Amino acid sequence: MEKVLEARNIDKHFKKPVLFHVLKDINFSVKQGEFVSIMGKSGCGKSTLLYVLSTMDTDYEGELLLNNQLLTGESPDSLSYVRNKHIGFVFQFHYLLAEFTVLENVMLPARKLAEKSSEEIEHDALEKLRILGIDNLASKKAYRISGGEKQRVAIARALINDPAIIMGDEPTGNLDSHNSENVFNIFRQLSDERGLSLLIVTHDKDFAKGTDRIIQMEDGRIIK
Ligand SMILES: Nc1ncnc2c1ncn2[C@@H]1O[C@H](COP(=O)(O)OP(=O)(O)OP(=O)(O)O)[C@@H](O)[C@H]1O
């Protein structure tokens, strides 16, 4: 299987308030269709690693590759394009625009990319909502739907540009057990049936157990 994401010898230091070695020689890859979770105690560096892997933080040593293309050293504009086109994000908080409809929220990252007509984008957005079983919510304002539904809309939005990989930072952190299971099942299905790669930071052991591989971090290192 092709490597979708690869981290080679990644190190990172925070320089303030005191010099702090936060990521230590991180090496791993995620293959196409693989569903990988990252676990570790609070403060071990999981979110920091996700910022580096998602190209939002470029202040690190080592190499980052997406689809075998070296991203390290690329210009901010080119990284912004790569992020929008090839990486989908799901956070603990959904970050939906409350006054926009569900459909408009899902369409936004495709509008930003501006590679398709409005009609095509709307068609694609409806298809993603259908995959997540929430196309009936398309015309509702985002503030009018439940927390579990909001997170599914956030996943549909992450899928809109057909990314190579979905990254998540505690995407079930704000959900009850029923909705967490629902989100897990959606991710599992996206990996199994659509060959999507997923890299998800989680504290939820049950969630992690159902993934293909758990990356265990401790004190800035991958220990397992
Ligand atoms: N901008 C920063 N400057 C200095 N230190 C930072 C900065 N951001 C995070 N840290 C420190 O780096 C370490 C790793 O933080 P990080 O947020 O990556 O941990 P985490 O594993 O995601 O924790 P949690 O599970 O609580 O979200 C922590 O000790 C944190 O205090």
Task: Report the mean per-residue pLDDT as an integer.
Answer: 95
Apparent shape: globular
Q: From the 3D structure, determine the CATH topology.
A: Rossmann fold
Spatial gap, N to C terminus: 21 Å
| Quaternary form | single chain
Can you write the helix and strand succession as a string?
Answer: EEEHEEHEHHHEHEHEE
Structural class: alpha/beta
CATH level 1 class label: Alpha Beta
Kindly report the spatial arrangement of strands forming the biggest sheet: 6-7-8-3-9-10
- CATH homologous superfamily caption: P-loop containing nucleotide triphosphate hydrolases
**Total number of β-strand segments?**
10
Structure, described:
The chain is α/β, with parallel strands linked by helices and 224 residues long. It has one domain (34-59, 74-222): Rossmann fold, CATH 3.40.50. The protein is built from seven helices and ten strands. The chain has a six-stranded mixed sheet with strand order 6-7-8-3-9-10. Strands 2-1-4-5 form a four-stranded antiparallel sheet, covered by helices on one side. Helix 3 (102-113) runs parallel beside helix 5 and helix 4 (118-131) crosses helix 5. The relative contact order is 0.20. The structure holds adenosine-5'-triphosphate. Adenosine-5'-triphosphate (ATP) is lined by residues 14, 20, 22, 40, 42-48.
Give the topology, please.
Blueprint: E1 3-14, E2 20-31, E3 35-39, H1 46-53, E4 61-66, E5 69-70, H2 76-86, E6 87-91, H3 102-113, H4 118-131, H5 147-159, E7 165-169, H6 177-194, E8 197-201, H7 205-209, E9 213-218, E10 221-222
Parallel strand pairs: 3-8, 3-9, 6-7, 7-8
Antiparallel strand pairs: 1-2, 1-4, 4-5, 9-10
